[in-house]
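Dear support,

We are seeing what looks like truncated structure output for some complexes. This example has three components. We would appreciate it if you could run it in full and send us the complete token output so we can diff it against ours.
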Amino acid sequence: MENYKTIFHSSSSTHSPAAGSHLSLLNMVNSHAQAQLHDHNKANYEYSSVTTSTEIFRSIGPAETEVRSSKEKGEKKSRKPKYAFQTRSQVDILDDGYKWRKYGQKAVKNNKFPRSYYRCTYQGCNVKKQIQRLSKDEGIVVTTYEGMHSHPIEKSSDSFEHILSQMHIYSSV
DNA sequence: CGGATTTGACCAGCGC
DNA sequence: GCGCTGGTCAAATCCG
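Here is the complete output from our reference environment:
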């Protein structure tokens, strides 16, 4: 229902439509940001979060954005790598250039805000992502990606979107 | 009309 | 074994 989406694309435009002012999206810059979501070790998922601030992600060192993945310790279970990003934004929908289809929404116990589940609509691409807002800081949105895209973006990747796509490459298993 | 959302039901894993 | 929590499905609905 809401229609923030559009706000995003105006990133490179001449003027920002105000609203959330600078959406300062993913600036997952610090490569050594270790996650700290989840209180108890949930278990086999390695959460790698990148702390964000209120700047524009542009210092992404090409060297290694090391979002870190798993240590190839082929244990039991199919430990899928997950990449969590904390983003300071007013909107929930962080568009990274891919097309997502929402397939569920659930309320989390410690959060008053629901969590949304999305899935990439590209045929054969089963990348999933969840978006959750912290009840403590309404301004923080946590986006968790699961899986990796193996296809081109189908949108006019703008500045940050392009960076994001590269990020996927760096964070590849 | 077709594709994306919505929303409750269903199900699996875990703790007690 | 039961109940809670989180994750996914699917039918109905909405919107362009």
